[in-house]
């Protein structure tokens, strides 16, 4: 399940003492990894927070709020654009995609 990219003041999601901002949360770690890969492929450095903890016990995912995706503050606008493109399906593979089978 996906929480939409943060709308509103990014300062609310800013980590104290760090230049990282939370841009999205996912209850399923695999989805968070997929989005992190799309961000990285688009040139946005992104890290996952709480992914290992959520994978350890999936029942904790709702209590923790899921896996957080964090990006540097200076990449915030680019990350939001990538998240919007992902939501529109622009990163989806077509039926004819060569996936190395």
Automatic annotation (TrEMBL):
One Pfam family linked to the record: DUF2007
Domain DUF2007: 22-86
InterPro entries documented for this protein: DUF2007, N-reg_PII-like_a/b
Highest taxon in the source lineage: Bacteria
Protein name, UniProt field: DUF2007 domain-containing protein
Organism in which the protein naturally occurs: Telluria antibiotica
